[in-house]
Write a structure and sequence with these properties.
The protein has one helix at about 20-90; strands spanning about 1-5, 10-15. By secondary structure, it is mainly alpha-helical. The longest helix has about 70 residues, at about 20-90.
């Protein structure tokens, strides 16, 4: 704000914003918007990559769970046979 005194002795306050300040404020706001957009784009890309990685881990865990289930069935079958053989010897 600028103050100036008129011929009659009154003080007049001017609320004019200097052009360099206005341009600087617009540049700062635009720069902040661009940086925010760039960071958001990077975050979306990282989230997409993490989602793909998590899906692959889930599929691998499901495959291993099936294999573990098959091994458990085989182990139970072998244990049953061993038990039958041991009981047959007695």
């Amino acid at each position: 704000m600028k103050q100036r005194e008129t011929d009659s002795g009154r003080i007049v306050v001017s609320r004019v914003i200097p052009l360099p300040w206005l341009i600087g404020a617009v540049v700062v706001i635009l720069g902040h918007g661009i940086v925010t957009w760039h960071e958001l784009t990077n975050l979306v890309d990282a989230t997409r990559e993490n989602t793909i990685a998590i899906q692959a881990i889930r599929e691998a865990a499901a495959t291993k769970a099936v294999a573990d289930g098959q091994r458990d069935v085989r182990i139970e079958n072998v244990e049953r046979r061993v038990t039958e053989l041991e009981q047959g010897r007695r």
